[in-house]
Amino acid sequence: MTLNQFPLCAIGHIQTPFKQKFAIPRQPNLAKARGQVVLAPDFDDPRVFKGLEVFSHVWLLFLFHENLDKGWKPSVKAPRLGGNATLGVFASRSTHRPNGIGMSAVKNLGSETVDGKLTLNVEGVDLLDGTPIIDIKPYLPYADALPHASDSMAELTHAAPIPNLDVTINPLVQNLLLEAATQHPDLPTLLNAVLAQDPRPAYRHKLSNDEKTYHTTLYNYDFAFTVKSGVVDVVGINTL
Length: 240
What we know:
By secondary structure, this protein is mainly beta.
């Protein structure tokens, strides 16, 4: 260890419905996706969560583990700018960071022991299933919510707002989706929230009639969808 290097370990990992990076909401709380932080054996002690129940939200600090081997970039493409314009890495929340650390504020649904493992249930996650968690901190409204903070990117750069497209589901898919919902009750709502945000690459958002069929995986289901006349149409579902 040197003055510029410090030891770091995962305290656990998070289980989420998102089995692939594509279609994960770009920020936390854009969909009410639920997750479970499962603590590693070295930290599996109920005392670590003593008092956490009084906080409605927590910060999850995590690693972009699937991007660490790709290194970092001083400037990155910004989805809010259409996918082609760039921003400095420290003016973004890109995964291509010098230390690959991310942070998400999520709703605290309480801790419990599941199959002998200490778990923290959360809502509003934007993390890939299996993401390593490196810390959990309480969200403090008096310090973390700054009423006078501003984000002028939209007015300075004509940044695109978060899409909110209509979502339709093929009747055959709808029947299968209702069957899947017996195991995952949140699946229909989650699917609608994820697809309404138009998970396609930002540069394709201008295509209101896109000839490509896209796929996204939630839980153990693969969904196929198209975008026609600015409407997302779910055209297929397969069990993985």
